[in-house]
Structures are given as C-alpha cells and as structure tokens.
Write a sequence for this structure.
C-alpha cells in the first residue's frame, strides 16, 4: 500500500494493538451487524437534549511560522443524533477544519468540543482513536481507493487493520457493499467503475465498522458541480432509514436540499443555520 494512504487509514482506524486494554473490554461493536435491524419509526429517534456533538466558542488556528491562519473563529454548533447536516461554504471558509474537529482528528485551539458530553480535552490519544474507530465513518473527498485492490478488498480494509479474519472481513464488506447498491460489483477493480460508484464504495468502506456518525468530505468539489443525486439520495437513506447521523461538508449550496439542516460558513464563522422540515428536505 502507498505509504501516504497507509498513514490515512492508520490515523482514522488504527490497529487492534492501539486500542487501550480497558476500553477494548467495553467495546460494544458487533461486526456481524445488519443495519436494517436498526430501523425505527421516526417517533422513536433520539431527541435527548444532550447533543451528540457540541462545539462551544471553538476556534482553530494553524500556526505556520510567520503566517498563522485562522480557520475557525468562535463557532457554536450542536449536532444531534439522527440529524443530516450539510456544512456549506466557499473554499477557505473552515469547512474541513470543522469536520476534522467533529471527527476528533484535530482539536480546537480555543473554545471546546464535547462528544456525547465528554470534553475533547479530557481524552488521551488512545481514547480519541478508540472513539473514532467505534463511532465514526469517514468518507474522504478523493475517496482513496486502492487501484490494485478489488472493491471488496477496499471496503474490508478498516477491518483488516484491526486484525480480523479474512472470512469476517469479506462477509462484512459484502454486506456494506449491498447497503450502497454495489453487491454485484465487489470483484471489480476501481478502474472498471465510474466516479459515482467510487463514491458509493468509499461510503461502504466507511460503513463497514457500523458507525453511528458518517462524516462526508466533499469540500473540494467545485461549487458549480452539484452533488450526484445517487450519492445525495444514498446519504438521505442511510440517515432516514438506518438512523445514521450524517455530516456532509461541501461548497455546493444545493447539497443542502438533501439534508434537513444547512449550516453556512464564511470566514471561519457560522453565517446561517437553517433547519428544514422532513418534507421540504426531500425537494
């Protein structure tokens, strides 16, 4: 595997040995999952007052020698369980920095962040890694599919990093591919598929560990290129039918139509926060 991609996967998912022993005993993950079993009527969706993710006065400063750059400034934002939120803004507005903060990939340089009520600053490096592995699925903007590996092998990669058997990796990967409509494409190589299928495969890879939160980075897609309806519809289905919390980061204001909520960023600050009804979000 290319060293850069290996670093990306290891940073997001880690290896079995990196999980703290005490936390490993508490791990609630069941790899023989069936997401369809998670369906609940809308009335039973979590509505607790405690947000799943909460940023309070959060700022992010990238200090690069003589030219520091302020990516985020005093951001207050709550993301609740079961939401589909689109984070929208032009290039340089702080979208990617916000997503990395929500996914515990980076820490705020000012203010605070709580995940499920736990302050981010109280977590050790090992605990952050464990939380990322247990609760988050990441879809990078360039997808990072390995061209020399089949689709099924790409999707199974996070489980392989955890040292699971080939049989369990294969069966879980095929179930994840079925969720995104690629169950008959698992044997194919990435070069045999189009970009929409690449996006679906990247989503399947993010789903293979049964996350509670899906973080989708589409920040580099030009603002005049709309989100593919197949991808937007898939994210909506994962949210509404399978109760996965979805955060989509994008330049495209039109992508907000797939979400129930659109948070607009500009200059590192929240400019607008619009919540739609379930019906209006369909159009």
């Amino acid at each position: 595997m290319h060293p850069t991609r290996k670093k990306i996967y290891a940073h997001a998912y880690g290896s079995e040995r990196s999980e703290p022993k005490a936390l490993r005993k508490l791990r609630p993950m069941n790899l023989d999952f069936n997401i369809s079993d998670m369906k609940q009527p809308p009335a039973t969706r979590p509505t607790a007052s405690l947000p799943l993710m909460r940023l309070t006065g959060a700022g992010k400063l990238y200090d690069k020698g003589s030219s520091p750059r302020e990516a985020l400034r005093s951001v207050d934002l709550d993301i609740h369980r079961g939401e589909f939120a689109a984070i929208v803004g032009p290039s340089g507005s702080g979208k990617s920095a916000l997503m990395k903060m929500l996914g515990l990939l980076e820490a705020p340089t000012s203010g605070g962040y709580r995940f499920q009520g736990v302050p981010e600053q109280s977590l050790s490096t090992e605990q952050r890694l464990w939380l990322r592995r247990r609760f988050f699925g990441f879809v990078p903007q360039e997808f990072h599919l390995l061209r020399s590996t089949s689709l099924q092998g790409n999707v199974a990669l996070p489980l392989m990093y955890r040292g699971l058997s080939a049989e369990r990796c294969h069966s879980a990967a095929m179930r994840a591919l079925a969720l995104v409509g690629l169950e008959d494409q698992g044997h194919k190589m990435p070069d045999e598929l189009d970009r929409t299928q690449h996006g679906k495969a990247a989503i399947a890879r993010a789903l293979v560990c049964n996350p509670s939160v899906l973080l989708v980075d589409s920040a580099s897609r030009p603002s005049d290129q709309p989100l593919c309806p197949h991808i937007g519809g898939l994210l909506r289905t994962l949210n509404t039918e399978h109760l996965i919390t979805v955060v989509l980061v994008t330049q495209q204001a039109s992508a907000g139509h797939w979400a129930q909520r659109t948070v607009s960023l500009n200059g590192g600050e929240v400019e607008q926060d619009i919540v739609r009804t379930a019906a209006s979000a369909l159009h």
